[in-house]
Design a protein that fits this description.
about 290 residues, alpha+beta, Tumour Suppressor Smad4, 7-stranded mixed β-sheet, 19 strands
Length: about 290
């Protein structure tokens, strides 16, 4: 990684589950469980303590290195141009929230609780952060370019860039998804539980569970995986999943659902995908720069 001055950093952090249970969603039932010594709530409280201990340690390391630092709760908007380094403190969900607002700045993920959080995008924990920060400041930290996707819905860019995956399906999970998929000159009407489109970075998540292939986080491959194809009435499908070859613009999905929906990088970001709408997918020409082995 080339040497670059790091004078300012943004710390993007998550709200702990404990805060959610006892803050916005406090209830009499949860309070009774806590008073009764519920073991699961005890684990949630210990995870809360580890998370905020990690946040304090990361912020302390930055300040001791002379880096001006600002905290920001994940999900809040920021302008990356105000910072030289973006640091996410949490798990992969926090990293995804931070990364979607980053186009050119360097990003590092810190796993705030390795006993609980999934951290594929997290290079280190709080204990190792000071050492890797020193390498970042010296220009010797390992960095990767992670490829993302751009979605065009009826000619308009939506929910982009996509770092992990896209789920195309019905808004009701139990309902069948109807759509037309075109790839490699083949156009096929399908009925299924939906379609995953995944980057290499997202290949260890839902795509893998649905039968996709795991790829290294920095690779360029994009794959699609239809879920639970309906094969009644002797129906046989040609487009059953796999890696998209060549130009991604050849992958097009058209909705045959009035209540279809597109979900991007999890359940929190989605848009309607109504009957007749057309989704095209291409690779983002500007990869994300991440401190990563």
């Amino acid at each position: 990684m080339p040497l670059m001055p790091i004078r300012t950093a943004l710390l993007v952090y998550k709200q702990s589950a404990y805060e959610s249970y006892f803050g916005r969603y406090r209830s009499r039932r949860v309070s009774r469980l806590a008073e009764g010594g519920d073991r699961q709530l005890g684990r949630i409280r210990r995870s809360h303590d580890r998370h905020y201990g990690s946040l304090e340690a990361v912020e302390r390391a930055l300040r001791l290195s002379g880096v001006r630092t600002r905290r920001l709760l994940r999900g809040r908007a920021f302008d990356e141009r105000d910072y030289d380094l973006i640091v996410s403190v949490g798990g992969d969900g926090t990293f995804l929230e931070a990364a979607r607002q980053v186009r050119s700045r360097l990003v590092i993920g810190v796993n705030s609780d390795t006993s609980h959080s999934v951290g594929r995008f997290c290079y280190c924990d709080a204990d190792g952060f000071a050492g890797i920060l020193d390498r970042i400041l010296k220009g010797s930290a390992p960095a990767r370019e992670i490829w993302r996707l751009i979605l065009r819905l009826d000619g308009r860019t939506v929910l982009s860039p996509v770092l992990n995956d896209v789920l195309v399906g019905h808004a009701v999970p139990a309902a069948m998804s109807h759509y037309v998929i075109t790839l490699g000159g083949v156009r096929e009407r399908q009925r299924s539980s939906g379609v995953w489109i995944s980057t290499a970075a997202g290949s260890t998540g839902a795509c893998r569970s649905a039968g996709g292939r795991v790829r290294a986080v920095h690779q360029r491959q994009v794959q699609y995986v239809p879920r639970e194809l309906f094969e009644g009435h002797g129906k046989r499908y040609r487009l059953r999943g796999g890696e998209v070859k060549g130009d991604l613009s050849g992958l097009v999905i058209e909705s045959q659902m009035e209540e279809g929906r597109l979900y991007v990088d999890g359940a929190h970001r989605s848009v309607p995908f109504r009957f007749g709408s057309r989704l095209t997918i291409r690779r983002d020409p500007r990869p994300l720069r991440v401190v990563h082995a």
